[in-house]
Design brief:
heterodimer; A: mainly beta; Immunoglobulin-like; seven-stranded mixed beta sheet; four-stranded antiparallel beta sheet; globular; B: 112 residues; mainly beta; six-stranded mixed beta sheet; 54% strand
């Protein structure tokens, strides 16, 4: 009964390939996120998404695109993979934030992507 | 532009003693702060939070202190236990935002 799950856990691929990472949450949350943790351990948000709005971090290359088939899923597609894309990618979800209401995020276990 | 900083990458503490993890931020608009704990090969898990209307929040062995004028917060764990050994991330958010800005984490080792 994992709350936020990601597949695969490890992904090793060649430069130039296109790959996807899947994320599913069974918490009934409306908002999902993708984070990248680079070699310096800096955990940086890439996207936040609910059924109304996609917020993209402007530093994220357009080779990265989130796809949400339904409220419980937010997959990450990466085109033309580059060496610098090697990192651990975390999916997260939360209840929607409104006004001054905040909700903590629940994280998946991470996907370690290695680009050769 | 790293708006949340954890300047100590690692910390070692004897079991039973107090662990103090520090976090600094630069954005004065941040008004909500969280601490997450992360074990190897797992995602971060929420530990404790504090709103800027408070300067202290306590949950069992964990206490977070917020000094708004210094733009500094700290997490105190007392007494520290070996199971507390993990990486601790500080995160902050501005009003109404879904986006949390994370620090780079502090790896805590509690020595039995």
């Amino acid at each position: 009964d994992t709350a936020v799950s990601q597949t695969p856990k490890y992904l090793v691929t060649q430069m130039g390939n296109d790959k996807s990472i899947k994320c599913e949450q069974n918490l009934g949350h409306d908002t999902m996120y993708w984070y990248k943790q680079d070699s310096k351990k800096f955990l940086k948000i890439m996207f936040s998404y609910n059924n109304k709005e996609l917020i993209i971090n402007e530093t994220v290359p357009n080779r990265f695109s989130p796809k949400s088939p339904d409220k419980a899923h937010l997959n990450l597609h990466i085109n033309s993979l580059e060496l610098g894309d090697s990192a651990v990618y975390f999916c997260a979800s939360s209840r929607p934030t409104s006004g001054r209401s905040y909700n903590e995020q629940f994280f998946g276990p991470g996907t370690r992507l290695t680009v050769l | 532009d790293q708006q949340v900083k954890q300047n100590s990458p690692s910390l070692s503490v004897q079991e039973g003693r107090i662990s103090i993890l520090n976090c600094d931020y630069t954005n004065s608009m941040f008004d909500y702060f969280l601490w997450y704990k992360k074990y190897p090969a797992e995602g971060p898990t929420f530990l404790i939070s504090i709103s800027s209307i408070k300067d202290k929040n306590e949950d069992g062995r964990f206490t977070v202190f917020l000094n708004k004028s210094a733009k500094h917060l700290s997490l105190h764990i007392v007494p520290s236990q070996p199971g507390d050994s993990a990486v601790y991330f500080c995160a902050a958010s501005a009003p109404g935002g879904n986006q949390f800005y994370f620090g780079t984490g502090t790896s805590l080792t509690v020595i039995p």
